[in-house]
Automatic annotation (TrEMBL):
Alphabetical list of SUPFAM superfamilies matching this protein: RNI-like (SSF52047)
Pfam families: LRR_6
Protein name as catalogued: Oxalate/formate antiporter protein
Native source species: Tetrahymena thermophila (strain SB210)
Amino acid sequence: MGASGLGSALANCINLSNLTLNIRANQIGDEGASGLGSALANCINLSNLTLNLGYNQIGDEGASGLGSALANCINLSNLTLNLRYNQIGAMKVHQAQVLLQQIALISQI
């Protein structure tokens, strides 16, 4: 099923408002991170999200895809995102942070 499949299944949960997802150390990589983010962007009622994606071999491409997708979560007000111990360069971390901070409704990152 993979992270993208999990995300697709979650996208069908239209009334989902709070989600804590710990998929630490599952080697989801860039494709899994981007796919998960894209699917979560379809959860239109999601307001509180905690994602632990540490130790998953996510690189710059995956971090960028995840950040861009999460920026479309228009009702997201609280986000806790763990991307520790991946292969994300410092510049991409900064770019993702700036992108996520542009979401006016997020009050806590």
